[in-house]
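[Automated response] Your request has been received and processed.

Submitted sequence:
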Amino acid sequence: MAIERWRPFGSTLDLWDPFRGLGDIQTEMNRLFDGFFGRLTSLGVSERVWAPAMDMYETKDDLVVTCELPGVEEKQVRVSITNDVPTIRGERAQQQQPKDQNYRRLERCYGKFERSLSLPMPVQTDKVKATYRGGVLEIKLPKAEAVKPKEIKIDIL
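Generated structure:
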């Protein structure tokens, strides 16, 4: 074992490089963002999890949630709502791998998924409608009457 002198600012012969270590930072940030958005990080194939992308927007009468579910069959999708929290569950089945070939790249995630989201306002849960077309699930959640905008007539004096 060799003892080496500690140099907190590197060797005096090294040129100062402000970008040293930037690749390590970028790799770590990519890993964090991939984990947050449900992409594969360092998990094995059997441990993969995924979360489909969702959007929510508001119209005059409804909150609308859209969810991208490419490759998921309609019969594999379930939508429920409990205490104004809609939940989407399902499963995307993996295609059969040919027996005499090995994957060189596997970026698409397969398996079960579940997404729940809090709503910004009360909705009429008994009137919720969901449609599925072209790999996109759309859920229309009618706003509760108390939060719908009401137009007030102005009297002229």
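Summary generated for your ticket: DSSP finds one helix and seven strands in the chain. Residues 50-95+110-148 form a domain with the Immunoglobulin-like fold (CATH 2.60.40.790).
If you did not submit this request, please reply to this message.
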